[in-house]
Each structure stands twice: as structure tokens, then as C-alpha cells.
């Protein structure tokens, strides 16, 4: 892991969220001494996407000049090794410049080093033959795929499925509407986030590091989703905080205490009248006669639902006893616990 590499990834602008996550995980796997060459299975697992989707985003990163992929083949077995990813900040980096073949219009110049005879040999090679060490065509190119071992040299069939190929066409009205709704919500949040930065006196063109990227936006979303504050209330609290402090906060975490106090005040204001002025005897009777505590099954089911959801899970919420109770009842999986930060 390299902090310089991940910081470089966070500073890149104009990328889609998933594309930026792929770039961040690539940089997280970067070693200053040896470079970056994680397998596609590892990258897809880290990014929680399929390999075909991963290849799409890698192609986008290569197209905008943020990385260059270098295929490697074992000189002994002729099997394909994990791709070497050269990142944009590495010394001597030059972005890939694909040039289509003048005959068929497919591929790069580097992929056309094999002669026509070598390509014919790769296509017509008998089963068990080794692939061409330069182009990777032939029956031995099945090192990382379950697809046909003889990709066509004309269309350069990928070793993974094409995510745009949908053999069963279904109505797209609902997914399209959901995507449009998600885009509208994202645009509305962008407007709100820009208004928040203005209330805090921050320049969007020169934001501090802790205000950049999706981590800052996710932190701000928690004030709304977890604390229950409205966007107008968040802006009001931020404006009041800015009046009390001459310098803007260096990150959203600095406003957590102010947002929590505002949420508590709103909760007390919404409480029924007289709820906080009970007689001392009534309070003592309530302490002597507590309501029945939830059973172990109820506690395990409640926290399992929280772990299996995408809601915010504070650190140290799940104790070892509660973790073992959920696992013994089959309510969660060890993989999901690790993904949510529960050890």
C-alpha cells in the first residue's frame, strides 16, 4: 500500500464513482519497489464488481491516460500472468495510444506484431498448442477464462464476457426510471453540497484534502441519514459554526459535534409536552419496574439486520458475544462481518 498513490487517486477529478473506486484500489495495491500487478479476481473482489465491469472501467482509465496496461506471459509455461498496471504518477509514464490496424480496423499496433502466418497458425492450431507469446492467440490462452480458447484475431474477443450482451431482453422502463431518479438525487445532493461549502466559506476550486472526493460526501450524507437532519438544518448549523470560528473546518468530521447537538435539540423539541417534567416518584417507579429486556434471539436478529444492510455501522457496535450469537444462528456470514469491519 502507498499513501502517495492513494492520495493521487483521490485527487483525480471527472471520473465516475465506480471508475474512481477501481483507480483507488489499484493505487492501494501499488508497491513503490515492485509496481502494481494485482489479479483481476482480486481487483473485482476489492471493488465488489464483476470482472467484465472491471475491464470496462480499466478501459476508461486507460482511455483518459491515468494508467497503462502491460500484458505479461510466463516465458516457460506461456500462460498469461497478472497484468502490470503502470499508473499515471510513476516516473516515465506514457499513456497508451491505440492505433487501429489499417486492414481490419481492430486492435493496436503492438497487437499486430505477429505476421499473417503466425495468426493463421494461432487460429488453426490443434488442441493443446501453446499461444502466440506476443498476441496471446491460440488454445493455450485459457489461463484466466472459461470462454473459447481460440479468440478471433479480427474482433479480439475478450477473455471475459461482454457486459452489454443480454441474451434475454426485458423491459427497461423501471431500471431506466430508477437510474434517472438516482441521477436526479445525485444532482440535488451536488447542489446541496456546493451550498454547504459556500456556507462554510470554502472555495470549491481549492478544497482541503478532507473535503475532497466521495468520503467527504458520504460523511455529510450521514448527518441526514443517521442523525435525521434536513438539508436546510445542516446549512443553518454550518453557517452558525462559521460565525463562531474565524477559520473554516478542515474536514466534515470537525462539524460532527455541532450536528449531533442540533439533532438532540430537534429530538427534544419533537418530544410530547411535559415528557421531561415527570414527578420524581414516577421516575423511581419506572426504574424499579423496568420493561422486559430483549432476548438473545431478538438482539441477534436486530443487529444482523443492521450488519446485512448498507446503513452506517458505528465502530465497536458488535461485541464478540453478539458476533458469535449471530454466527451460531446463521443470521450473518463471516465474509459480511469482515466487509462491515467486524472482527
Automatic annotation (TrEMBL):
Q: Which Pfam families match?
A: HTH_36
Organism domain of life: Bacteria
UniProt biased composition (Basic and acidic residues)? 241-269
- InterPro entries listed in its UniProt record: WH-like_DNA-bd_sf, WH_DNA-bd_sf
The UniProt entry, under SUPFAM superfamilies, shows: Winged helix' DNA-binding domain (SSF46785)
Tell me the segments the record calls region Disordered. Answer: 239-297
Name used for this protein in its record: Helix-turn-helix domain-containing protein
Its organism's taxonomic lineage begins at: Bacteria, Pseudomonadati, Pseudomonadota, Alphaproteobacteria, Rhodobacterales
Amino acid at each position: 500500500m502507498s499513501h502517495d498513490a492513494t492520495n493521487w487517486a483521490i485527487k483525480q477529478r471527472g471520473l465516475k464513482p465506480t471508475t474512481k473506486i477501481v483507480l483507488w484500489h489499484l493505487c492501494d495495491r501499488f508497491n513503490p519497489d515492485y509496481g502494481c500487478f494485482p489479479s483481476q479476481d482480486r481487483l473485482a473482489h476489492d471493488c465488489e464488481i464483476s470482472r467484465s465491469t472491471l475491464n470496462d472501467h480499466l478501459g476508461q482509465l486507460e482511455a483518459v491516460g491515468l494508467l497503462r496496461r502491460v500484458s505479461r506471459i510466463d516465458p516457460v509455461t506461456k500462460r498469461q500472468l497478472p497484468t502490470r498496471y503502470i499508473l499515471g504518477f510513476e516516473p516515465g509514464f506514457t499513456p497508451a495510444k491505440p492505433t487501429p490496424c489499417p486492414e481490419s480496423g481492430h486492435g493496436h499496433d503492438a497487437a499486430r506484431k505477429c505476421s499473417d502466418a503466425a495468426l493463421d497458425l494461432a487460429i488453426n492450431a490443434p488442441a493443446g498448442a501453446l499461444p502466440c507469446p506476443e498476441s496471446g492467440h491460440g488454445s493455450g490462452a485459457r489461463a484466466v477464462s472459461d470462454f473459447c480458447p481460440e479468440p478471433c484475431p479480427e474482433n479480439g474477443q475478450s477473455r471475459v464476457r461482454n457486459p452489454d450482451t443480454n441474451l434475454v431482453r426485458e423491459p427497461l422502463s423501471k431500471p431506466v426510471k430508477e437510474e434517472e431518479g438516482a441521477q436526479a438525487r445525485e444532482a440535488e445532493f451536488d447542489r446541496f453540497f456546493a451550498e454547504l461549502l459556500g456556507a462554510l466559506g470554502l472555495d470549491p476550486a481549492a478544497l482541503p484534502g478532507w473535503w475532497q472526493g466521495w468520503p467527504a460526501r458520504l460523511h455529510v450524507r450521514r448527518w441526514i441519514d443517521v442523525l435525521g437532519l434536513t438539508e436546510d438544518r445542516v446549512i443553518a448549523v454550518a453557517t452558525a459554526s462559521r460565525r463562531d470560528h474565524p477559520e473554516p473546518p478542515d474536514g466534515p468530521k470537525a462539524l460532527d459535534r455541532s450536528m449531533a447537538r442540533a439533532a438532540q435539540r430537534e429530538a427534544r423539541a419533537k418530544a410530547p409536552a411535559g415528557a421531561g417534567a415527570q414527578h420524581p416518584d414516577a421516575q423511581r417507579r419506572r426504574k424499579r419496574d423496568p420493561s422486559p429486556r430483549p432476548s438473545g434471539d431478538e438482539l441477534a436478529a436486530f443487529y444482523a439486520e443492521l450488519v446485512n444492510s448498507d446503513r452506517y455501522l458505528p465502530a465497536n457496535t458488535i461485541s464478540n458475544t453478539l458476533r458469535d450469537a449471530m454466527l451460531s444462528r446463521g443470521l450473518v456470514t463471516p465474509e459480511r462481518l469482515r466487509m462491515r469491519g467486524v472482527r
